[in-house]
Amino acid sequence: MLIKFHTSAAPDIVMLRDLAQYLLALVGKELQARGVILSSELPSAIERLERAIEEDMVRENSHEHSTFALHANSFPHSGGLAQRAWPFLDLLREAHKQDKDVIWGV
């Protein structure tokens, strides 16, 4: 199932339900058929998502260094949270700049 995120401040983004559920949980929201992140909630949501991305990057770098000798170049880059969350984070930032809500739906 696809989830569509919309704000008048940026182009819509569409993502798979599992990723949407995960990202929304990171910003303190629960995936429902429809929902909203109010403009007043955006600073906290952005901060929480940025922190989660930073923590994921630290874990990924730590893992790469610890397993590099065993798996040298045997696995392509996995594309961590930063890569998957960037469009959503960008949407949140643009909505915050323009003081707009972010809504989602199926």
Automatic annotation (TrEMBL):
Superkingdom per UniProt: Bacteria
InterPro entries: DUF1840
Pfam families tied to this protein: DUF1840
Name of this protein: DUF1840 domain-containing protein
Source organism (scientific name): Burkholderia cenocepacia
